[in-house]
Structure formats: structure tokens, C-alpha cells
Design a protein that fits this description.
This is Putative ATPase. There is one protein chain. The chain is an alpha/beta fold and 465 residues long. It folds into two domains: 17-136 and 262-368 and 442-464, 3-Layer(aba) Sandwich (Rossmann fold), CATH 3.40.50; 141-258, no CATH class. It is 38% helix and 17% strand. It has 15 helices and ten strands. It has a seven-stranded mixed β-sheet, with helices on both faces. Strands 8-9-10 form a three-stranded antiparallel β-sheet, with no helix packed on it. β8 and β9 form a beta hairpin. α2 (40-52) packs across α3, α9 packs antiparallel against α10 (283-297) and α10 (283-297) crosses α14. Residues 1-21 and 307-312 have low confidence and may be disordered.
Length: 465
């Protein structure tokens, strides 16, 4: 506790210089997060492209005041740069493809020359506003929930998760009270990682530790060589005692620095959720997503700060956008229902943030539109369809027009079976597929086509511009 307090004071003093600088060149730090397959990389790429060329951003009111937007070197030299150019090239190529997903933390700075508002705006000239976008893997996000858990609590929860998804992991036969043998510890860590991969493939979201799935430069380190074990004795030098020690080391050396260096410095947050992907996986996946995002949001520090506290370096997330991605996989007549389902899923987390003073909003969107809409007559009635190139084994396949099924008017028809542990939807599965990006022809001044990305930018940025 004392160490954390001292660290916070030291960090606050260090931030004062940048905070004073912000008075002249304001900086807004935007965190982009979400669970796996939510589309974080595409969101950032399309957002930046559409802030530079704002021809497709009619709902972004501040766009008219931006004279120029351009990329600059990021302020954090120790954080890799988000590879914007490569990702944009993938999406706009003659044969476009989805870019690689987020595998490590990265950052990008977009600077904007903005005309001032008010009666004397013509006399005050332009000001520069920096937008620092921080991207990090969704697999790391859930680790924040480990901060308040012991090894025993985490083990019980992790073993229960694997059992619920019927994923094999043989921990019951392991004698945790026996003397530590490093090869056995490494084998257990590999077996647990494989079990996590299998559970994720089946539709699981709440899988920790996240670095086991994306270890990066820490692969093979002791902090990543532990696994859950059933409860029992833990004498000195035993396997169970060492597993618990390494679990605490993981929190100390991986989770805490991540929270301190990145989470605690955010002003705005985007939480992207592939709600349609969870619905396709079934009720169990929907409930797991709902529970996971509630755990994640408890680690944020939402709320409003006065100008004096901002000047002194204190930062707090004051706006959170919840976005259901891939809305272009549905006809626009279904988008309101998708938004209602999202709002019901994040209700608890949203209420907590609202109570703390943060503004929240939920929308359905697509950072890059991959389909077009059409209506056809079938058996005497008009059917709303979406048409696009289906992904088959990760590659663009045939072009199809399909009606994935109508989402229910009442979100309870989705959430209630999920909470009750149903294995299938009472009214049948939804015919949801993954689409490949469509070839683009961009006119001068236009960014990539999207669905409601301008409304997302309006909520997140306009008040600061």
C-alpha cells in the first residue's frame, strides 16, 4: 500500500510538466480496448484515416474546425508505434484483407490544427490538439481483474472456466504438495495454455492470464510458468507454493506496470465488443462476454475531474464508448436491436461509470463497411439482406447475399437464456458469417466507408476540439 502510494506521488510529479504543456498544446489520450476479435486494429486505422480525410464524417461536428490533421512521432519512446500505414495499405489494396490483430501494445499520435470557436475566433489563430491513441491486446485486458485475487481464488475460477467449456486439463492428478520440479511446472504451464487456446476457439472470453496467449518477449520466463491447481497443502519448496509465488510475480511485474503506465493515464476509453460473434457462438459465449466486461470495467477509474486537478496531473476516464462492432453484417433495420442488446450486456458496468461521473454511450458501428444492403422479394414479402464476400478459411471467398435472422425486439430474449446456461438459442441459431473487406475506390478527401464512426468520434473528441 505504501509503495503504491509513493509510486502514485512520484508519477504525479513527473506528469506535472506534461500537464502544464497540455495547457498550450492539449493532449487527449484515447484507449482502445476490447475482447478478442472485436476489431481494434481496424477501428484505429479507419478512425485516423477519417480524421485526416473527413469527407465521410458528417456527424462529427468538430470536423469543420480542423484545418489539418497529420501524424507525428509519439511521446512514449519505449512503446512501439502503431503501424498505421501498413494496416491502411491492407484495407485499401487492390485485393484487400484484414490486417493482423493486436499482439502487443502500441501507440500513435495524430495532431490536429484546430480553429478556435467563439466571437473572437478569427483573432486567436489556430491551436494544436494532440490525440494519442493507445492500442493493446484484448487478451491482456482481463488481467486487470487479477489484481484483487489470490492464487487460490484464481485457480478455483480458472479450473471452473475450463470445466464449463468442457476443455480437458488434468490438474487433479498433480501432487501440488510435492517438491517443485521445473520440467513439471513448464509442462503444466504449456498444458494450461493449450487449454486456454481450446476454450477461446470454443467461444470463451474470460481467460487469464492474458500473456499466456500472447506472451511477447516474456515467453518462457518464470512469471509466465505457472498454472492453476486444486486447493491443498503448500509446504515450503512445493509445486503449489511456487505456483502461488509466480502468480504474485506475474501481477507485480506484468499487470501492475501495465495498469500504471497505460491505463492510469487515459482520458477517454473505447470498449469494442463483437456482440454478433458471441451470439453466433451461443448463449454461453454471450454470458461470458457480459461477465468479462463487467470485471474489466471495475479496473477503470471513471469520473469527471475539475480543471485544477487536471492541471496538477491527475487523469481519470471521463467518457467511455461501448461499441458493438461489425454492424454492417446486419441490415441497418436491425442496428437498433443490436444496440439494445449491447446496452443490456454492459448495463452494470455503465451504471458504475455513470455513478462515478463519467459519460457513457453505447452504439452499433462498423469501422470499415464490408457489405452493401439490398432488399429482395421472397414468398410474397420483402426481405432485408446484406451482400459481401464471405471469409472462407481466412481468405475472401464467394459473394453472397443473406438474411442472418432478425434479432429480438427484447434483449432479454438473448440475455435470459445466456444467464440460465442454455446451450442453444430457443428460436434457433443466427446465420451470421464473417465478411472480407470490399475493394475500395476512395475519392479525394474521403476516408474508408464506415457505419457510425463519425458518431463515435463526435462523442469521444468533439468537446475537446
Amino acid at each position: 500500500m505504501i509503495g503504491q502510494f509513493a509510486d502514485a506521488v512520484t508519477r504525479g510529479v513527473g506528469d506535472m510538466t506534461s500537464s502544464v504543456t497540455d495547457v498550450f498544446d492539449p493532449t487527449l489520450r484515447l484507449g482502445v480496448t476490447g475482447l478478442s476479435r472485436a476489431g481494434k486494429t481496424v477501428f484505429i486505422t479507419s478512425l485516423v484515416a477519417n480524421l485526416i480525410d473527413r469527407g465521410r464524417m458528417p456527424a462529427f461536428s468538430a470536423g469543420a474546425r480542423i484545418d489539418a490533421a497529420f501524424l507525428q512521432p509519439q511521446p512514449d519512446d519505449a512503446v512501439p508505434r502503431f503501424d498505421y500505414e501498413a494496416h491502411l495499405a491492407a484495407l485499401t489494396a487492390r485485393d484487400p484483407h484484414w490486417p493482423e490483430g493486436t499482439r502487443a501494445i502500441s501507440e500513435l499520435r495524430l495532431s490536429m490544427k484546430v480553429r478556435r470557436g467563439g466571437m473572437l475566433s478569427g483573432l486567436r489563430g489556430l491551436r494544436t490538439v494532440h490525440l494519442d491513441i493507445v492500442d493493446y491486446p484484448g487478451e491482456w485486458l482481463l488481467d486487470l481483474g487479477l489484481m484483487e485475487r489470490s492464487y487460490e481464488d484464481w485457480s478455483e475460477r480458472a479450473l471452473a472456466r475450463l470445466a464449463a467449456w468442457e476443455v480437458p486439463y488434468d490438474a487433479a492428478s498433480v501432487d501440488g504438495a510435492a517438491k517443485l520440479e521445473e520440467p513439471q511446472a513448464q509442462r503444466l504451464a504449456r498444458d494450461y495454455t493449450a487449454a486456454m487456446q481450446a476454450a477461446r476457439t470454443a467461444g470463451a472470453y474470460d481467460l487469464t492470464p492474458g500473456r499466456f496467449l500472447l506472451p511477447g518477449e516474456m515467453a518462457g520466463s518464470p512469471a509466465l510458468t505457472f498454472a492453476p491447481l486444486p486447493p491443498g497443502e503448500a509446504p515450503r519448496g512445493s509445486l503449489r507454493r511456487e505456483m502461488a509465488r509466480r502468480f504474485e510475480a506475474y501481477k507485480r511485474h506484468v499487470v501492475q506496470p501495465f495498469f500504471r503506465d497505460h491505463f492510469a493515464r487515459l482520458d477517454r476509453q473505447v470498449v469494442l465488443l463483437d456482440v454478433l460473434g458471441a451470439i453466433r457462438q451461443g448463449p454461453h459465449a454471450v454470458e461470458e462476454m457480459r461477465a468479462a466486461i463487467a470485471d474489466v470495467l471495475s479496473a477503470f477509474k471513471p469520473g469527471a475531474l475539475g480543471w485544477l486537478m487536471q492541471l496538477l496531473g491527475a487523469r481519470r476516464v471521463d467518457r467511455i464508448l461501448f461499441a458493438a462492432t461489425k454492424a454492417d453484417h446486419l441490415h441497418h433495420t436491425q442496428h437498433a436491436r443490436l444496440t439494445a442488446i449491447l446496452e443490456a450486456m454492459v448495463k452494470d458496468a455503465k451504471a458504475r461509470a455513470d455513478f462515478a461521473g463519467a459519460r457513457t454511450q453505447a452504439i452499433s458501428m462498423a469501422a470499415l463497411r464490408a457489405t452493401v444492403e439490398e432488399t429482395r422479394e421472397h414468398e410474397g414479402r420483402h426481405v432485408a439482406l446484406v451482400r459481401g464476400r464471405v471469409l472462407e478459411d481466412g481468405m475472401p471467398g464467394r459473394e453472397v447475399a443473406l438474411h442472418p435472422g432478425d434479432l429480438p425486439d427484447d434483449p432479454a430474449h438473448i440475455l435470459t437464456p445466456a444467464r440460465r446456461g442454455a446451450r442453444t438459442w430457443p428460436e434457433g441459431d443466427y446465420d451470421l458469417v464473417d465478411f472480407a473487406p470490399a475493394p475500395l475506390t476512395l475519392r479525394r478527401g474521403e476516408g474508408p466507408p464506415h457505419v457510425r464512426l463519425d458518431r463515435a468520434a463526435e462523442f469521444l473528441l468533439s468537446d475537446r476540439l
